[in-house]
Amino acid sequence: MKKTLIYIIVAAVLIGLAAYKIANNKEQQTQEVEEVAKQVDKINVNVVTVQRENINTDYSANGTFLPKQEMNQASEISGRIVSVLVKEGSRVSAGQTLATIKRDAIEVDITQAQNNLQNAIIDNQRYENAFKTGGVTKQQLDNSRLQLKNAQVAVRAQGVKVNDTSIRAGISGTINKKMVEPGTVVSSGTAVFEIVNINTLKLSVLVDESQIGKIQLGQEVSINVNVLPEDSFSGRITFIAPKSDASLNFPVEIEVQNKGNLKAGMYATALFKTNNGAETQNMLTVPSIAFVNGVSSGQLFVVENGVAKLIKVTIGKVYGDKVQVLNGLNGGEQVVTNGQINLDSGSKVNIVK
Fold it and tell me: How far is CA 89 from the centre of its chain?
């Protein structure tokens, strides 16, 4: 009987403990649900604290160096190359002979032209004398004079051909490529040498339309060359395209005096100084992504005591991804930069770090 009573008491205690545990868990679960409900009621956002800063408006653009002058030197006449007087890497001056073409046949032609000229001179003199005595007509004398002029022109033409047997450099520079060897047969217009002048180089870059109005011809530009990080270079703007490309970028050329270590084709970065001094100092700015429906709307959300508030501000100039605020903010406010699409003025927010 005593054992039975003990069992009953133990069972009652166990049942009481179980009931207490269940009740306690239910209360804890209720508190957790209420806390989650509170969080669900809030909208997650990212914010940035508004502050004053100095804006660097310098603009950089990448490009490659081009020779100021380059040309493919071509042969003026057809023929066989008999000598090549330069090699790749040779420095040449404008007018210098680079190669010669076989001239035997041309010399025969010029001899024939000179003989024809002598005959034309003799014939014309005879007609001149005969005309004075009435032995020939005026028309016959005119024909004689015309034949003399044609013979003179033929001699000059052969002289030009003889001169063209020497292939001469059209510009001063360096032989970058040699396309012929002695024995090569060339036609008129065939490119035989590539000449480049890199004493002065052009850095060709593309400048965005938002920056093109801030640069001007003659402006000095600092240049960084990737493969020559320890050297400093500078140049002057010599060309600004009057028309943009399809991407609204404007081709700009910067002339750089070569110190001897620059090569055409090198990659470089031009730094355009466009800083406006005091105008861009101690400015109140916010990120452009903070604005609702674009910067032009002037509307953004600020967070006050966990609540989003839609305000209107007066904007100034846009500097890249930063927008100047003239009125509406004092600094120190928390401005929403992400999550605005889900907000209304008065929405509760949860700031995500």
Answer: 28
In a domain, 34, yes or no: no
Of 71, 154, 170, 73, which Cα lies nearest the Cα of 119?
Answer: 154
| Residue 99, CA distances (Å) to 7, 104, 133, 169 in order | 123, 16, 55, 10
Q: How many angstroms separate the CA atoms of 331 and 323, rounded? A: 14
pLDDT one-digit tens code per residue, 12-52: 656 666 555 655 665 665 455 445 444 457 899 999 999 88
Beta-bridge mates of residue 303: 308, 334
Residue at 32: amino acid letter: E
pLDDT at residue 26, as a whole number: 55
- φ and ψ at residue 212, rounded to 5 degrees: -65, -30
The answer as to whether 313 is a domain residue is: yes
Domain co-membership, 252 together with 209 = yes
Strand partners, 66: 202
Reported as type and span, the H/E element at residue 165 is none
3-state SS assignment for residue 94: coil
- Across the beta sheet with 166-168, what order do the strands follow? 166-168, 97-101, 79-84, 185-186
Long-range (24+ apart) CB contacts under 8 A made by 31-36 are none
Average pLDDT over residues 91-112: 86
Same-domain status, 78 and 181: yes
Q: Name the β-bridge partners of 283.
A: 53
Give per-residue pLDDT as tens, 302-334: 999 999 999 999 998 877 788 889 899 998 899
Range of the domain at 294: 44-55+279-351
- Shared domain for 178 and 90, answered yes or no, is yes
Q: What CATH code is carried by the domain that includes residue 134? A: 1.10.287.470
The owner of tokens 């604290």 is 49
Residues in the chain: 353
Under DSSP, the state recorded for 23 is H
Count: domains in the chain: 3
pLDDT digits (tens, 9 = 90+) for 165-194: 889 999 999 999 999 999 999 999 999 999
Give the type of residue at 168. R
